[in-house]
Design a protein that fits this description.
Length: about 400
């Protein structure tokens, strides 16, 4: 009995392995049972010949098994070639490896602004990939395209762009770039309008196998809107402040003191441009709002520059933009931070000090820390970044 049980288990396990064999063997099993039962049936009531039995069995054995699904097609070869066995010049087999670039680590050029600097000169302010400038030699070309006018004889004109890197190498992923475009003739002399194009070429920077040139439109002058008197008329302001990027948790009380102090120092013919890089939160804006309404302050939102990793929230590109944007509107322009104060000696005014420097077109100011004993300390430590107490003495 044990042997029969073992044989039955083996038989059943074999049935599970293949569905088609299972069906065939099951049919044969029932045929055998029927044949055995027929032996006990009287021949007078039922007869079956051997040929009939062979025919039945042959029909069962000829039942086609259920076809199994076809195997999946082989995967196509990869189009990405990572390595290849090659024969070098010394008839030696070596493995050549391949590199496949995707995306872009840093942009070739990012434009912020462009301004006319005279009858035939322009300044383009932007950012560029620092490695291109450190390890390559990028070049720039400027092109003026006049508007099509049948009465005008103006044609396209090009010139080499002279690049200036004003951040002294402090840039991070991006460095500030000012491109000067000076043409050999007056641009838009008929005031028909046109546009300025910049061609920025990597020239060996980045991918050394290619000299990629990007073309971009940087400035458009509409017909009849060019005012050339801007370059030789009397400036609107005596003193103009270009502020660096404002970021962090600025203390509104210190900002209120700073703006009130310098408006009083510079007088009514002064103006202040502040650049919000995330530091002008609601409380700081409430401090600046009355000064904006009085016409003393212009606030510019530059938070988008945070997409590009430059030095100190890209303050070099910000102050250069302010310089070229407003330089014809002021007699003197100042560049310092909101944690610093301009100080003039007793019996002097800002006017007398600057009048003594009228023969110069640029001067620097010596910094001297202010005594902390005269700083307001009631709210010290209440903000993450508070304005420092410091002063500048004109020399």
């Amino acid at each position: 009995m044990a042997f029969k049980d073992k044989e039955k288990k083996l038989f059943l396990s074999s049935l599970r392995n293949n569905a088609s064999e299972h069906k065939l063997l099951t049919s044969l099993f029932f045929v055998c049972i029927i044949a055995t039962l027929l032996l006990f049936i009287p021949s007078s009531s039922f007869t079956i010949s051997a040929s009939d039995l062979r025919f039945c069995i042959s029909r069962i054995s000829q039942t086609p098994p259920t076809p199994s699904p076809p195997p999946p097609p082989p995967s196509p070869p990869s189009s990405i070639l990572h390595e290849k066995l090659i024969l070098n010049n010394n008839n030696t087999n070596i493995i050549k490896r391949f590199f496949h670039p995707y995306g872009s680590a840093a942009y070739n050029f990012i434009t912020m602004s462009a301004y006319r600097g005279g009858l035939n000169t322009f300044a383009i302010i932007g950012l560029s990939s620092k490695p291109i400038h450190v390890y390559g030699n990028p070049t720039y070309e400027c092109e003026w395209i006049p508007n099509i006018n049948t009465n005008s004889s103006e044609e396209k004109i090009t010139t080499i762009g002279y690049k200036i890197l004003p951040d002294w190498g402090y840039g991070r992923v991006y460095t500030a770039v000012v491109v000067n475009c000076t043409f050999n003739e007056t641009i838009n002399v008929n005031n028909n309008g046109g546009k300025l194009m910049l061609y920025a070429s990597t020239s060996g920077g980045g991918d050394t196998n290619f000299n990629i040139t990007d073309k971009m439109e940087v400035l458009v002058e509409q017909p009849k809107l060019l005012d050339l008197t801007l370059f030789d008329s009397k400036p609107k302001y005596d003193y103009f402040y270009c502020g660096s990027s404002l970021f962090g948790n600025l203390n509104p009380q210190r900002v209120r003191e700073w703006i009130a102090y310098h408006v009083r120092l510079f007088g009514p013919k002064s103006h202040f441009v502040l650049h919000d890089a995330g530091g002008v939160h609601e409380q700081v804006f409430e401090v600046l709002k009355p000064w904006i309404e009085l016409g003393y302050v212009t606030l510019q939102d530059i938070r988008e520059q945070e997409r590009f990793d430059g030095y100190y929230h890209n303050q070099f590109i910000v102050v250069n933009d302010c310089l070229h944007r407003y330089k014809f509107m002021a007699k003197w322009m100042f560049f310092f931070d909101v944690d610093e104060y301009i100080y003039v000696p007793p019996k002097s005014t800002i006017k007398t000090v600057l009048d003594s420097l009228s023969e110069y077109n640029q001067f620097t100011i010596e910094q001297m820390p202010m005594s902390v004993k005269i700083c307001l300390s009631d709210d010290y430590g209440k903000t993450y970044r508070c304005v420092k107490c410091s002063t500048h003495i004109s020399v």
